[in-house]
Every structure is written in C-alpha cells, then in structure tokens.
C-alpha cells in the first residue's frame, strides 16, 4: 500500500550519502494525525551530524507537500550501533570500488610538472562542470603538501565519520576529500612515501564516495611517491597533464606525463593554462609565451607512441583566481567567461569519451 507521506519522504536525500532517507533506514516512523499534522521521526547516522538542520528542514518541507498535511513535526534521534551497521552493510553492497577492473568510474589524475600552473583550479572547475552536466563526481585532493581543493570549493565542513567509514563533504554536487580536512589548520604535512601511500589507500577504501561516474585526483606536482602510489592503487586511472605555454614548463610537464610509460597508465590529454590575457582593447597578450601545450602534446605523443590530444587552452582570467579565493568555481560563478567555456569544453571531451579509448585522436582543434 502506498503511503503518500512515505512517498514524499522518499524524495528527501541524505545530503552526504545521496540516497533517499527512506532507503537508508533513517525514517523510524511517519504518520499524519487527525489534525493534519505529520509526525516524522528521523534517525541520524551520528549524534553530531553537521547536516541535521538540513535534513530536518528537508523532511518538514517534504511532509508539508502531502495533501491534507498543514504542518510537520520532525523529531531527530540517533541510530543504534546495530542500525548503523545495517546501513553500512547496505551501502557496501552498492559501492563500486574504483580498483576493480569492472568499475565504471573513470579515474583521472590531474598532473603537472611544477606547482602554480593551475592544476587545482582546473580540477575544481572540471569537477563542477561535470557535476553540472549531471554526472556523479568526486575529487581526491592528493596534493598532500599543497592541498587547496577544499578552499577552492568553499568547503569548511569536516568529513562525517560513521564508525570507520568517512563521508566526504559535498560542494556544488561534488564529493571532496582532502588531507587538509584531517590536519590542524595550516600545519605542514611531513609524511613520507609509505605514509602518503597509506593515506591515499585510506581515502580510496574508507571514504564512501558511492557510485561515481568520474573521480578526479589533484596530484602533487612532479613525479613523486604519490604518482607511483596512484598508479599502483588505481591501475586503470588516466592522467591529464597541465602546463603553461612556456616551453620550459612544458618540458618539466613532459616528465610528469612520461611517468605513464613506467606505470602503464594512459595520458588522456594535455591542457594548456594561462595561455593569454585578453586586454581591454580585445588584443591578446601572452605573458608566458606560447606553444607549450602543443609542444607537450607532440613530445608525449612521441614518447608514449600514441596520439595525446591538446584538449584545450585556457586564458588567464582574473575572475578565475577570484572565484578560487572565494570558494566559487568560475564555471559556476561566471559561466559565460571565455575561461569557463573552455573548461566546460574540456570537461565535455573528457566525459563524452568512452573509457578505454585513451590516446585516440578526438579531432579536437585547439584554439
Ligand atoms: N587561467 C587562470 N587565470 C588566472 N589565474 C589563474 C588561472 N589558473 C590558475 N590561476 C591562479 O594561479 C594560482 C595557481 O593556481 P593553482 O590552481 O593553485 O595551481 P597548482 O594547483 O598547479 O599549484 C592560483 O592563484 C590560481 O587562482
Ligand atoms: Mg594545487
């Protein structure tokens, strides 16, 4: 028998788990009394749930949409350890671990030769653009020494822990986890290789991303331990290499991409960032020279013996920087800007390509 109140509650999603609260065993009871008051008792996964206010408001709003209900009383309680275990078991079955060969999640590591080329800004903007296309997207900020993704995405909320499971905060529809969420504010991370490997492994196993279409990893610059760990933990992952137009930058980026020959990963393409600055009179100034993206594309194509495409060239855009500082990615805040449109175009090329065709020429004409 269908219960209109229950049906309405089934449209409420847990903000972190992204599944109907009715499926998650979070609705303990729901009934409408004779005076038209809906009484809903909700079980939270943990007592200190940071999103309890959101859940409470969403439940009340959904209940009030039901015919004959004119007000709602929502009571919040906490799951028992046993209820929590049942929830975790049900989630596990539906999780596609990214490491399995049949995983449908595309994993793309965003790599660069050196820092400051816009790798993190691109990661955040690509993720938001893909989420806006309706894809389920996650980011792992694997730049352990220079984590910046939470700031770029405006995330101040800490991950929620449900026993040993970690629920990543969600911003603009993107699930984000970063080492920055686990360290005291602005303390340096002094971990070495094995600890970094363990941290990454933990992100991949204990963090509940759920089914994702795309997982982006903001990698540290260069060819360090993390790059090797990623290739070991995520053998099916691809690399996207970011460079500036400067030929010296392209040369260091070549090493970051060429690591794919050793790790067996494929390079999905190259993105040139900071390509030009449009002056008020409409002319283009090229503070970092030109040709770096093209050069890197040619070099990687030769080294990897496959066609590595230049997926796009992103202009310098002060609003991109400002959006990053404000935690509002440009592709959402200023979607008509040339930089945002180019990033969106790059995101589409990445998502509109079936997996496993890495290196195929897409017939892309870089501007
Ligand atoms: N296309 C761009 N236009 C203007 N500023 C940019 C652009 N790309 C990156 N930036 C700025 O350059 C700086 C470095 O970018 P970031 O994404 O942190 O690089 P990385 O992760 O490679 O170190 C940031 O201040 C960022 O806002
Ligand atoms: Mg960075």
From TrEMBL:
One of its GO terms (molecular function) is ATP-dependent FeS chaperone activity. One of its GO terms (biological process) is iron-sulfur cluster assembly. CDD domains: Mrp_NBP35. Gene3D superfamilies: Fe-S cluster assembly (FSCA), P-loop containing nucleotide triphosphate hydrolases. It comes from the Bacteria. Binds and transfers iron-sulfur (Fe-S) clusters to target apoproteins. Can hydrolyze ATP. This is Iron-sulfur cluster carrier protein.
